[in-house]
Every structure is written in C-alpha cells, then in structure tokens.
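2024-03-11 09:14:02 DEBUG pipeline.ingest accepted 1 chain
2024-03-11 09:14:02 DEBUG pipeline.ingest length=335
2024-03-11 09:14:03 DEBUG pipeline.predict start
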Amino acid sequence: MKVTVIGAGSWGTALAIVLARAEHDVEIWAREKEICYGINNFHENETYLPGVTLADSITASTDMEATLKNRDMVVVATPSHTVREVATRFKPMLSGNEFIVSVSKGIEIDTYMTMSQVLTEVLDGVIVEDHIGVLYGPSHAEEVSVFKPTVVTASAYGRSTAHAIQAAFLTPMFRVYANYDVIGVEIAGSVKNIIALAAGINDGIGMGDNAKAALLTRGLAEMRRLGMRLGASQDTFAGLAGMGDLIATCTSLHSRNRHVGFQIGKGEKLDAIIEKMNMVAEGVKTTKSVYGMAKKYQVNMPITEKVYSILFEDVDPKDAVFELMTRDPKQEILN
C-alpha cells in the first residue's frame, strides 16, 4: 500500500517504521523543515525519536499535497486538538478512496467528539464513514520503533476497513486485533490518559502501590461507565484499548501523562511542566473535555473530577486524595 502519516511526532514516526517494515510505501508529512531534513538525509527524527534509525525508504516532506497524492491510506498522528484543523486542510487533497486511520487519542473540547467523529464530520462528502477507523492500544513509540513486541487493536465503522487497517500494520513484532466498537475503543484510549495523570500524582506524592492499584481499577470503572453511556460494549474496556493501555500508560516511565502527574505530585505547577516538554501530554486537555462530558451525560467520574480540580482549580493533590477516600461508602458494581 501507499501510506501517508500526517504528523512526525514520536508516535507517527514509530508507526511509519512499522509500516515500512510491512513493506508499504511510506511518506511522512511534518510541519518542521528540520525534521524532514533529518529523516531524508540521516534517517532519524532527532527531535521526537532520537537514536532510532528509520528505513531508507521512508521519506518526509512539508508539502502536504505532495505526500497525499495517490495514497491508499492516511494515518492521522497529530495531537488531538489539531486534528480538525489538519483534516480541514487535507480534505481537498483526497481522492475519496483512501482509508483514514486516527491514532490520536483525545476528546475534542466543546464538541465532546472523539477523533473519528471529528474526521467523519470534517471529511463528509469526500470520505465515507465506513472508510474511517482508529488504531489504539498499549504501544509506547520508544518500544514500537525498536521492534519490541506490541499488541494493539484496529477498530472502524466498516468491518472491511478494520481488517484493512489490521492487515496494513501487521508485522511479526506488531500484532493487531480487529475490534468493531469504535466509540468504546476511543473512550477507553482517551480516558486512560486522565487515569495516568492520577497514577503519576499518586507516585509523586508517594501514596504507594495499594492506592495506585485502586486508581487503575476504579479508573477502569469510570471509563466503562462513560463508554457504556455512549453506547459502547463493556467488553472493550477489558481489552487492549481499555485495561491494556491503562496498565501501560499508568506504569511506564515512557508515559508523558504519568510524567506530568508525577511532577505535579512533587509540587510543580502544570504550566511549568508543560513548558519544559517538547511533546504533548494528551491527558491534560482530555481531562477538561471528559469532565464536561461527565456533567453533560450525568456520569459519575470522581477520579476525573479530582484530576480536573488539581489541574485547573489548583486543589492540593493530597486534599483531593483525602476527598476521594472519604466519599460515602458504595457497593462495588460493574456499571
């Protein structure tokens, strides 16, 4: 296949490496000329994935229209808050036959749309909904790019599209399962970043493993509640996009969201943390979106509420933990 990856961050670059290993013709679109120069001349994305060698066949360009010419698949790997703007830009450049794959995890602020919903709305009239899908799961770019075993899930509105995505990315060290619950996959993959912030705060404060295990377990209950309220299958949350990605993001030193939470737990302010990072921690914006969604759909999400209060209302993390621990006693239920 001829595949274009829109976005040259660590994740987009890592997936380009996977696609090249699967013997596809891969081009990357990047905003920055210096990133394109490094990929084309030194086969390395020194800014976002330093020390990893890209296949000679992978090329990069700042010319979006050139990278999209005669392509079979377009992988959208930009930060979630830029997906609408980027898709609006490339819509006139599409033939209408492409598969569109979102690998951006997040919920759009104000509209509360998932990324596949944003793409469906923006690309309406050119790309049919059945050609839009997502690729989610426990998959840190730092490990994927050096071919460490990784297992993810491909989900799409059309079953044939889910299988096309599965086949495109499948390599010996990158195993892909098909899943047809798009909303469940996207809610799971987005909300887990909020729980990762909470897990990082927990580690930064030094609350211990008992508390962290509780956060993961009750965080899973929150994402399941929201997903099922939106029509998702509860089985999805026990799978790769749910429990799988939750474990990876909440426990790994590669996790940017856990890192942000950890620094907050140590007493640093959010703005200062973000200023020092050259990559996006999606959970920060997603917290704001999901907090609003929980209110709109009347879904009980106490961990999300406390993370929101810590990030945006300057509540002391230790006070937030105390408030969670002293809530009224409840029955442990699945929904």
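2024-03-11 09:14:41 DEBUG pipeline.report The domain at 2-180 is CATH 3.40.50.720 (Rossmann fold).
2024-03-11 09:14:41 DEBUG pipeline.predict end
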